[in-house]
Specification:
about 55% helix, globular, Rossmann fold, alpha/beta
Length: about 130
């Protein structure tokens, strides 16, 4: 399993994005099951709408909710409690709460590989991150 962060999904969805080709290539090359959370999808859809890509958000949102794109993990209350602990414990980092939720879900599901464009997943210290 490979966890996919918001930045990869966003870049892959928006042709004008500078990382579009890299994100599409990475997603196309993966042979393992892709995993993301409902929190990542929420962050992605919000980001797309904020950048005036409402039509893309509408299309891709339906694909996520129907799990056509990847395995969608719904965050549970234990994940949220773990994420809050991570958020408080690592306050020297600039991780969003969604990043902390991703951390907690990856730990729970024993996922050690991720696709992410920012440094946050590398900072987690337990995941191999591409690119």
């Amino acid at each position: 399993m490979i966890f996919v962060d918001t930045g990869i999904w966003s870049s892959a969805s928006v042709p004008e994005d500078p990382n579009h080709a890299v994100a599409r290539k990475l997603l196309g090359e993966v042979a393992a099951d892709l995993v993301t959370t409902d929190y990542v999808v929420d962050e992605l859809l919000t980001l797309l709408v904020m950048h005036r890509h409402h039509q893309i958000a509408n299309r891709i949102g339906g694909d996520f909710w129907s799990q056509k794109v990847c395995n969608l993990v719904y965050v549970n209350s234990s994940d949220i409690a773990s994420a809050w602990d991570v958020f408080v414990r690592f306050n020297d980092k600039s991780w969003s709460f969604t990043d902390c939720v991703s951390y907690a879900v990856m730990k729970r599901m024993k996922i050690v590989n991720a696709l992410a464009l920012d440094e946050h997943f590398k900072q987690f210290g337990f995941a191999s991150v591409s690119p």
